[in-house]
Amino acid sequence: MNSDAKTQRRYRELAEQLQGDIAAGRYEVGERLPPERDLAEAFSVSRPTIREALIMLEILGLVQVRVGSGIHVVSRTPTLSAQGAGLADDVGPFELLQARQLIESEVAAFAANRTTKSDIARMREALDMERRDVAAGDTDHRSDEMFHLLIAEATQNTVLHETVRSLWQRRHRSAMWLQLHRRIAEQEYRRQWLDDHQAVLAALRARNPEAAYDAMWSHLQRVRETLLAISDVDDPHFDGFLFTSATIKTAVPGG
Amino acid sequence: MNSDAKTQRRYRELAEQLQGDIAAGRYEVGERLPPERDLAEAFSVSRPTIREALIMLEILGLVQVRVGSGIHVVSRTPTLSAQGAGLADDVGPFELLQARQLIESEVAAFAANRTTKSDIARMREALDMERRDVAAGDTDHRSDEMFHLLIAEATQNTVLHETVRSLWQRRHRSAMWLQLHRRIAEQEYRRQWLDDHQAVLAALRARNPEAAYDAMWSHLQRVRETLLAISDVDDPHFDGFLFTSATIKTAVPGG
DNA sequence: ATTCGAAAATTGGTCAGTCCAATTTCAATG
DNA sequence: CATTGAAATTGGACTGACCAATTTTCGAAT
């Protein structure tokens, strides 16, 4: 039946094909793929082989397989990184925040030089949504994430974008984060954060890298302090971080 | 046969179990896992199920499956990130370098504040190795990567470490990178890069964040210019990058 | 007509057995 | 001792079947 071809690793072919279909919008997020049996017939392979391909898509975070229900498309692009595979990656919130502060501040500054009008427009929308969420007492923080990711996208650099997205993805895998989030929702901190976000957006609109850097740095500093105040944790990555991380800020090298 | 339990997603259990065994050293890197048939019997599951678990391990970069040969342990810890799954991630070298310059410079500065003696010692070793490699006309650039990763490790922040490692991992997946690398090896650029690395190490030893930032920035700037000179590519991420990326560098916010 | 619940259909989860293909092993051969 | 080729090993894939979770259908009760 299958003699020539690459022989080895059939499931990868199928997975790539399906991934391509999803990326191309052949299957929208929220929709379902055809049943395994149909897919098997469509690709002229057996069900076990299709299953293997689906497992890959699942690990990549593209689909979610549910018995009796079907294969649901969850994302249009691979979301992966080890967390998606269900690995233990419960890094302390402070350690993660430390990394985010370092990277996202730079990203914000860089974005100030490269953002487009349409980027700005989308960020504005995200802030509107966040404003509504805060008013509604939303606990999801989806709009928060959206805003930060849009900034990274505004760098026009896919590597930076994916890097920041990867950082945010970790967040949702941490048990401690989820716990803290629930507690934060009840507070009024989010209003302050919304103000922070607006300050960042203002700096981006003004195309002012320094202001964008400062605004983002201050914002994440505030987030960090908020979490510290709320939690009683004794994080090893807290000591020596508070004021030491304010690294560089010298004259421009390069050139 | 399998009535109770979590029912759903059997392969994940098995994969985690096997991953645990590998992580624990039950199977060393280079060794092989038992044949699929044996594993199936050992875990009291069918071969297709074991296969599914192995596919997960393969995607995670832990094992490599070879027909007729067996299941070879490739790594002790998940190496993943989308690239490991064999996805197309052939981002332009310049775009990647842009991201690296932005992030690794900050990381170097941060590392200057937190590096330990043993970190310094390991970096020194890496540079010694690099010196030998350059002299030997090595084309692998393994010591180069090692040095950069050690810097990220010196931040004592695993998120930053993994982020930088993730960036370097992309590098090896890009066709253009490999092509460029071969050409670079023949040149003498690497001697210059070695000098750059030594400058970075000196700044770290002196625990001088600004100097570390500048040294790393200059180094990656040089790498970028080198690649530009060698390649005739017309990368969209080159325009507007050369001097605009020198972002922030203002007074310390935070506090 | 609407609502509710049980039966039927759908769909993924897993198994057992079989055959094929690539690789390795190892003994016979020169 | 090197080479070769057959046999054993091992993964690749298929078929057909049955189970379990979910969804859909449709008739009965209101």
From TrEMBL, chains A, B:
<dbReference type="GO" id="GO:0003700">
    <property type="term" value="F:DNA-binding transcription factor activity"/>
</dbReference>
<dbReference type="InterPro" id="IPR036388">
    <property type="entry name" value="WH-like_DNA-bd_sf"/>
</dbReference>
<dbReference type="GO" id="GO:0003677">
    <property type="term" value="F:DNA binding"/>
</dbReference>
<keyword id="KW-0238">DNA-binding</keyword>
<dbReference type="Pfam" id="PF07729">
    <property type="entry name" value="FCD"/>
</dbReference>
<dbReference type="InterPro" id="IPR008920">
    <property type="entry name" value="TF_FadR/GntR_C"/>
</dbReference>
<dbReference type="InterPro" id="IPR000524">
    <property type="entry name" value="Tscrpt_reg_HTH_GntR"/>
</dbReference>
<keyword id="KW-0805">Transcription regulation</keyword>
<dbReference type="InterPro" id="IPR011711">
    <property type="entry name" value="GntR_C"/>
</dbReference>
<dbReference type="Pfam" id="PF00392">
    <property type="entry name" value="GntR"/>
</dbReference>
<dbReference type="InterPro" id="IPR036390">
    <property type="entry name" value="WH_DNA-bd_sf"/>
</dbReference>
<protein>
    <submittedName>
        <fullName>GntR family transcriptional regulator</fullName>
    </submittedName>
</protein>
<feature type="domain" description="HTH gntR-type">
    <location>
        <begin position="8"/>
        <end position="76"/>
    </location>
</feature>
<keyword id="KW-0804">Transcription</keyword>
